[in-house]
Amino acid sequence: MAEDDHSFKYDESDEKGPGHWGDLKPAWQTCKTGKFQSPIDLKTNNGVAVAEADSRVSLEGLKRSYKEAPAVMMNRGHDIVVQWEGDAGGIVVNGTHYKLVQCHWHSPSEHTINGQRLKMELHMVHNSSEGQLAVVAVLYEFGHPDKFLSKVFNLIELLLYMNKNENEKGIELGNVNPWTVQLGSRKYFRYMGSLTVPPCTEGVVWTIVDKIRTVSREQSRALALSVHHGFENNSRPTQQIDGRSVQLYRPQCMMMSCCVSGGGGGNGVGSGKSDKGGGDCGGGGEGRAVGLRGVVVATAVDDKEEDGGSDGGGNGDLEMEKQ
Ligand SMILES: [Zn+2]
To answer: How many Å lie between the centroid of ligand 1 and the Cα of residue 196?
Structure first.
């Protein structure tokens, strides 16, 4: 999303560092003057959100409808990106359909949790027919390898040895299934922000999954080695929230099937069926939930008209990991 890989830096002491992005080009002014910038710090402790939750806006479950499509992987210098060339489906936010365009990684994470940076953050970038952007972010700590990165792992190193021409074409990955990116929870934080690289365009709908997943050190290192020198750390510092509301969507567990996998404060009692993919309520599956139990910034009920109230069953499959 950056115009030129080396026209900005992440090193705060560099004259092209994050504090100066807004001065580097007129078109990048928003990086300095914007009031809705990303990333931000997400607070989950003490049951108090940094920003007041806006109860007038009711959130609904993230509706994903991905499908596999041809993709290429490229080194943009400041990050590694997997870009879909065919129709890879997308998400629906507030009635607007956003098409999946690409995903890329930041190390360490850009969004922080209670001031803490995690090891890595994945951004799935979507855009609407009106050109609006919606990004779904997943945070990672070190642990088991990440499934999606594992699929492209051997090719990441190849990027290192490609010349500029080859790199512009990228490496053909064949069909890539976006469902391979595992969220592991239906809970998420939502706020309005910006691109985290120049030109820092605002109006981006952010969805940060409330579950920390894992990436292996080896995978993380491969990403850092592949980007251009100086971009091993490619995370923008957190920005002022400035009175924005940050909401936490948490599905209401009306039906047992929603909670049996152990999430959302449920004990996982009852079901004889062990379904690893059913960690929809948050606590199940791999990884750990970010939010503390019982801490709700804003509880939202799915819009029954649109969702048919099937949060606990039927449509829940949308969110189920397809592996
Ligand atoms: Zn990003």
So the answer is: 6
- In angstroms, the CA 214 to CA 208 distance is 15
For residue 65, how far is its CA from the centre of ligand 1 (angstroms)?
Answer: 21
**Tens digit of pLDDT for each residue in 281-293?**
444 344 555 553 3
List, in sequence order, every residue forming a beta bridge with 213; answer none if it has no partner.
140
What is the rounded CA–CA span in Å between residue 81 and residue 74?
5
Q: Is 106 a known active-site residue?
A: no
**Stretch among 24-33, 75-84, 137-146, 290-299 having the lowest mean pLDDT:** 290-299
> Which tokens is 54 given?
């806006």
Q: Using omega within 30 degrees of 0 as the cis cutoff, is the peptide bond preceding 18 cis?
A: no
CATH C-level class of 18-251: alpha beta
What residue ranges do the domains of the chain occupy? 18-251
**CA gap 207, 126 in Å, rounded:** 11
Higher pLDDT, 319 or 280: 280
Cis peptide before 39 (omega within 30 of 0): yes
* Residue pointed to by tokens 């997400």: 42
CA 12 to ligand 1 center in whole angstroms: 18
Residues in CB range of 267: below 8 A, 6 or more apart: none
**pTM here?**
0.78
Q: Which residue has the higher pLDDT, 48 or 199?
A: 199
Distance (Å) from CA 100 to ligand 1 centroid:
14
Q: pLDDT band at 159, cuts 50/70/90? A: confident
Q: How confident is the model at residue 50 (pLDDT cuts 50, 70, 90)?
A: very low
Q: From the CA of 104, how far away is ligand 1's center (Å)?
A: 6
Q: What is the C-alpha separation between 17 and 194, in angstroms, rounded?
A: 18
Catalytic, out of 6, 20, 78, 104: 78
